[in-house]
Design brief:
The chain is α+β, with helices and mostly antiparallel strands. The protein contains 4 helices and 4 strands. It folds into 2 domains: about 55 residues; about 100 residues, Ribosomal protein S6/Translation elongation factor EF1B (Alpha-Beta Plaits). Strands 1-2-4-3 form a 4-stranded antiparallel sheet. The longest helix has about 55 residues. The radius of gyration is 40 Å and the shape is elongated.
Length: about 190
């Protein structure tokens, strides 16, 4: 009876060992693979739903973009001329009007070669003018309020040397020599 008792316990122990090896060797990897696939499926479903929400807004975003583009065109921030030469001539006229309206004296204007930057043609004019500080302030305000947008670049302001009085002292003239570049932009038309 002892021998049979041990054989039965040995058989039951071997059965548990086989079941344990089955659980550890086959069932556990299958369960963890299933859990990993379930987690990946959940993540992919979340991504899909997010992409579907984004795709659903596509028409609304496209319509808003068109509205913004049309408003941008209406505001005319850029020179509407077709050629750089015409844009430069317009820019020189704007400068001349601003300086003379402010009471300054325009010494010279010179169109500079254009540069293409980020899809826009940079149109620049070098300006030399004489006037007092109020004249300069008025000119700069005129440029700031202008449409199309004008940018002042490389400004250099030097006082005009005054005249000597009878006591051999130089009196300040209050006048300034000002040189700067006025920059405007025009769209590059792709052909």
């Amino acid at each position: 009876m002892n021998k049979t008792f041990y054989q039965r316990w040995l058989a039951v122990g071997l059965l548990f060992l086989v079941l344990l090896l089955f659980v550890l060797g086959i069932a556990t990897p299958l369960i963890s693979a299933g859990l990993a696939y379930h987690e990946e499926k959940t993540d992919l479903l979340f991504r899909l739903q997010r992409q579907q929400k984004i795709a659903a807004r596509k028409d609304s975003v496209a319509q808003n973009l068109e509205t913004i583009k049309s408003q941008f065109q209406e505001q005319a921030y850029f020179t509407q001329r077709d050629t750089e030469a015409l844009a430069s001539a317009d820019l020189q006229n704007i400068v001349k009007t601003a300086v003379t309206d402010a009471g300054g004296q325009l010494t010279s204007t010179q169109g500079l070669p254009g540069k293409i930057e980020d899809g826009f043609n940079r149109v620049a004019v070098r300006v030399r003018m004489t006037g007092n500080i109020e004249t300069l302030r008025s000119v700069l305000r005129s440029f700031a309020a202008n449409v199309p947008i004008l940018i002042i670049d490389q400004i250099d302001i030097t006082p005009v040397r005054g005249l000597r009085n009878r006591a051999s002292k130089i009196e300040a003239s209050g006048q300034l020599n000002v040189s700067f570049q006025v920059v405007s932009f025009m769209r590059v038309i792709k052909q």
